[in-house]
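Bumping with the actual sequence this time:
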Amino acid sequence: MRETTLCLLAEGTPPRRILLGMKKEGFGAGKITGFGGKIEPGETPAMAAIRELEEETGIRVTCEELEPVGQLQFLFPSRPGWSQLVHVFLSHRWLGTVREGREMKPVWCAVGEIPFEQMWDDATYWLPRFLGGERIRGSFVFAKDNETVAEVSISGWEERSEGGQL
């Protein structure tokens, strides 16, 4: 199973706004999501999250500014090549000005106005929990349509360095 990253930028504590993006091409095109992607050879999940965030938004963060908040496993029995383990990070501090990139069109969303209907079906299960300060491990099995979540398992996630997170 491939490993990927997801990085969420949040303004305020507790978060008032979150930076999400409309995926313009590739896997998930047309959906709103966080920023991230594949972990390249020799990279840690944090290094990949930092690289992907800068590539997709122009925003820079450091390892110290990334808070590991969870691991999410997405299983697509009808499309096994889509299955992935995602290392999720949250940051309240960054440098730079948000810009649109080739793959993503960034948009700030008020926490109470997140467009879940335009996101992957699983986001309603985990995104509010991360924004609420929880650290979780989740597993989501998609139905044959590869859009609808058929099974969900969520538990607390306590070990900061578990699974090579940083």
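The tokens above came from a reply further down the thread. Residues 76 and 82 are 6 Å apart (CA to CA).
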